[in-house]
């Protein structure tokens, strides 16, 4: 337990490798080492490596997600149609190339309201993200206790009938894109009478030389079985028009949701559809840029997944404490190691 606490603290302070985790422990003064449980010296770096490459990555992810949730402040008053939105996305660890040449690929689920990665599973060799979705869903349910009312958003790869059945059977909802991997569904959505449907919501963003307009239309699917996707209650079309340096591009996206119109207005669908990108922008990119994940060549045992989980934990910790610049938060934690140890090891009553 002491070594795992060290690993969590070290990555919260910006450690990017097994060696850096061991160095962080070595660099502490003796009183701080003693507070972590090391009163007769510290273990060798190889001991830390052996532990972190043999841990059950799934169990570790669940334990640390639960630990973060227990330390998340109570949410303020929420709007009437507030809904917990979980974004699902995969990431390849490009530096973790196994002996047979395969790279480790992980599928994760992010609570977009807190910034906590609730679950992460390793995609099996010679497979893809689709079979990993059900284990991920089960892992999220284990952490939360129930999925009732929760909305899952994901890219078009996960617009699968089995996924829809798995989600709705647990009392949850879906908002999924329709693209070429579901040609019948995509064709049906594309030929809906969009010209006759009024605009439901329009947003305009401007910044960094870019202008973007997003226009949403939504329609209730009245005919049961009329759309080639189970539990689809509404269809939505989002047109994004972007102008950068005088060049304008236009992108059209079609989506289906299991939520009815009273529970999901076009403005809600707009917001929730954009939430899908949060796992890429707020987690995966931070792991790459701040923690240099793609340069880390750990490949033994569960080491790659364990290190990714520790990075997820660091990002989630800093976000629930109000930080948006994770690199700066890492540096501050490293400068204040005593405060960091106090915060991580202190008892805390759950507010969730």
From TrEMBL:
Q: Which residues form the H repeat-associated protein N-terminal domain?
A: 2-68
Q: Which superkingdom? A: Bacteria
Biological-process GO terms, alphabetical: DNA transposition
Question: What InterPro entries does the database record attribute to this sequence?
Answer: ISAs1_transpos, Transposase_11, Transposase_11-like, YbfD_N
Residues of the Transposase IS4-like domain: 84-314
Q: Where is the signal peptide?
A: 1-22
Query: What GO molecular-function term can you cite, just one?
Result: transposase activity
Query: Is Signal a UniProt keyword of this protein?
Result: yes
**Disulfide bond: present as a keyword of the record?**
no
Keywords from the named record: Signal
Q: Which PANTHER family match?
A: H REPEAT-ASSOCIATED PREDICTED TRANSPOSASE, PROTEIN YBFL-RELATED
- The name on file for this protein is Putative transposase YbfD/YdcC
Record the organism: Actinoplanes campanulatus
